[in-house]
Amino acid sequence: MTRLWPACATLLLFPGVVFASGNDELPLALTQSTTGYVALVIFTVAYALVMLEEHLQLRKSKPVLLAAGLIWAMLGYVYSQHNQIEIAKAALEHNLLEYAELLLFLLVAMTYINAMEERKLFDALQAWMVGKGFDFRALFWLTGVLAFLISPIADNLTTALLMCAVVLKVGGDNTRFINLACINIVVAANAGGAFSPFGDITTLMVWQAGHVSFSEFMPLFIPSVVSYVVPAMIMSRFIPRTKPNVAHVHVELKRGARRIVGLFILTIATAVAFHAVLHFPPVIGMMMGLAYLQFFGFFLRRTLKRSLKRKAMAAIANRDDFALKRLGSVVPFDVFRRVSHAEWDTLLFFYGVVMCVGGLSLIGYLSLVSEVMYLQWNPVWANIMVGILSAIVDNIPVMFAVLTMDPDMSMGNWLLVTLTAGVGGSLLSIGSAAGVALMGAAHGKYTFFGHLKWMPVIALGYAASIMAHLWLNSALF
């Protein structure tokens, strides 16, 4: 999630939010004060360290956590000096509530994904694809299409890493195929995540903010398909039809794997119901869904001995020594171990970004940027620019800035900014979490410049998806 971002863009991309407080006092005007300038410098330095994560081996959460603390410490001091600390406190609590809802939602989703991974679901899918004997071009399309279809449920980062593991296994030393296949996976995963609240953090943010309901994301399906298919069709012409030389490995699912998938679908339905029927934040339904998994884990542990005894008797009867050996390595399912395997660096990075942007927003930069982008410009062009900027900067702070600006836009424009922030990150390898993760997973075979070479093709898909949305969903504008 590192970004190459010119310092001159700081004022534009990381503005602030003006929050209502319990009294009639207005926030202090700090945009041209020493506090405002120092806060911008602190955040710029912190984000520069985030961009250098791969080189410094410094986790991206560390600098933004420190920056958030420093910015809010300065704001607390300034507001206390003016006897208006309640305004700063209200803004701080607003940001904390926003983050808490997203944190718990993502934590449950990550726990389910980790549980499915521990039960060997993804390994089984990978083994199936490898063992089918597809040629390179078929694997190019298969991994891309699966990335597009899985990412709306399993998030684009997890999906991209899964498909990348397949590409690396079958690609071997074929660097050209691996590079093109990884580009294809990044584009597909980001496109697939753009039309689902569960596919990307930015779509989740828009959904939880109440600007777009769960069903109202569906008009983005065809534009998302276009953003993937257009570059994929061009890149596939450069993939040979030769077959890779790989051996098939059988993977057996662990007990309860398929039932966990069912529980995850039930959890999603519960979250949607809480939001659509009861008008509660969907995180309440997700936390209830975590209870489903906990009770199922309890069931798996309590019935483990009986299940092992039955399988052992069957293995002895069939004289299956391999099955007996495998049974000896079975471990009970532990929900809290799955929780501990969540992407905590990403979750803490998200906290730092939210609090930093919230602090800068209280200073007053967001109102300035909002006036330029959404009052002086046409909102369509402003939202297209948001997508381009999300390729340079992480789309999370960009989308958070847009949401905190809360411009008065039509449903069509809210869907447009959701689409552009999601698929715009595919323009550069550093434009999305999926791209950054794959550069690490396929180190030296999928690179920034390898992706940059195909940026015009990806940009063609980006432009085509916008035109498709403007044409097909014109009634929403």
UniProtKB/TrEMBL annotation:
Molecular-function annotations in GO: antiporter activity
Residue ranges of the TM segments: 36-52, 64-79, 220-239, 260-277, 283-300, 347-368, 380-403, 415-442, 454-472
Pfam family, one: CitMHS
Membrane topology reported for the UniProt record: Multi-pass membrane protein
Keywords: Antiport, Ion transport, Membrane, Signal, Sodium, Sodium transport, Transmembrane, Transmembrane helix, Transport
Entry's Gene Ontology cellular component terms: membrane
Extent of the signal sequence: 1-20
Domain of life per record: Bacteria
Localization of this protein: Membrane
Swiss-Prot/TrEMBL GO biological process terms: sodium ion transport
Citrate transporter-like domain mapped to chain residues: 47-422
Annotated PANTHER family: SODIUM/PROTON ANTIPORTER 1-RELATED, SODIUM_PROTON ANTIPORTER 1-RELATED
Similarity field: Belongs to the NhaD Na(+)/H(+) (TC 2.A.62) antiporter family.
NCBIfam families: NhaD_1
Protein name (record): Sodium:proton antiporter
Species whose genome carries this gene: Vibrio renipiscarius
